[in-house]
Known about the structure:
alpha+beta; Immunoglobulin-like; 5-stranded antiparallel sheet; 19% strand; elongated
Amino acid sequence: MKLYHPIWKYLLHLLPMQKISLEYEVANIYSGLISFILAILYIFQKRRTIREKCIFSLFFVGSYFSFNLNILDYLWHGFHFPNQLPARQSFLFIFVLLTFAYKAYSEKNFIIHLQAKETYKKKKRFNLKIFISIVFLFEILVNSVFTLTAYTWKADHNQYTKYEKELHHFTEKYAPLDNEFYRMEFLQPVHNQGLRYGYNGLGYYSSLMSGQCYEFFKNIGMDIYAKSVSTNYVPDALLNNIFAVRYLIQINDDPVDIEGLNLKKIEEQDDLTLYENPNYFSIGFSVKEMDFRGTKASQIRDQFGQSLNTSLQSNDVSFLMIDEFAPDRIRGKLSLDQDSQLLTSIGSEEGWKIIVDGTDVNTFIAFDYLLAAPIKAGKHEILLIYETPGKSLGSLITCGSIILLFIWLWVDRCKRRYNAVHEIGFVRRK
Length: 430
């Protein structure tokens, strides 16, 4: 348990003309100095009850510890420490702060609290609320100009769009059929091109990456950009085969040596060249008399690579023949002449299961991360299926919340109508 920064740094960040926070610094919580002053004024207004003042105080104290205490920081970010940009829930703090500021600002007696009654009577034409609004907008404008000119930068748009046309051509022309699965990657390590252009890639950049995934790719020699959030695929002859990488893309003006990768050129465009790996494996395969239990990621290149080459030469490798591939399931056939193990190039994340001939089998983790399962000898129908963990419970909570919301709205409406009827009756009796 630890606190990241002293409280005075957070108070400083409520003031204008502050540097933008990046890379584990203090939360970006500025929303206008005037709005902060108004929010503080809220607690000193006479009509505020003890309950309202307690809620306000708990909000500020709770926000400070949510931003600054490592345990709450971990909980707020979905049981994960975010990379670089701090306190990504700060927009919630700003929203509530502005709500308190508006309540103070819209108070009927707001002006009287700030000016003596006599002064207010003499200056009826002067509206303090309009003046405060102008000052507020002016402050935000000046701070915005300062921030944009001092602490922001622009991306090179051409770098983002340079390869779009050619990549779309490759991904459409060489896309897998419904009964096929293979991956495509760049020869140069890049961030999330597979997600961006819609091809099956291995490079992964996400603040929600599991530690198990990160450690696996790091230990097999992948390119790492930031701790626990990113891995970029580095092509290798063995890994290309194991991970079913059929196509690799070369950036022509930044070429990578492809000697030893056993690739053949398929198509060349102005900026990109596409190569094919003819030896890629299926997404699942079995190797005779090889036990994957307890294997480590560090063994995948040397010990496993050498054994795999020997097994391929003696035809001791059986491949899963895919009949159907969908985003949440892979269906295929596997034929074995002896008891063996199915090794897949799928991460063994929660939610995956393997069904053999209609029966669930107990899966295990190979090489510290890959999904694997024991398979008996014979011909089998294999189904690999993924179900999002917590999806059913989450859907139930969402539906229940919607129902409760409508019940609350109905009760509130009934109360309003009841009160309105009684007020009318009271006025008539008067």
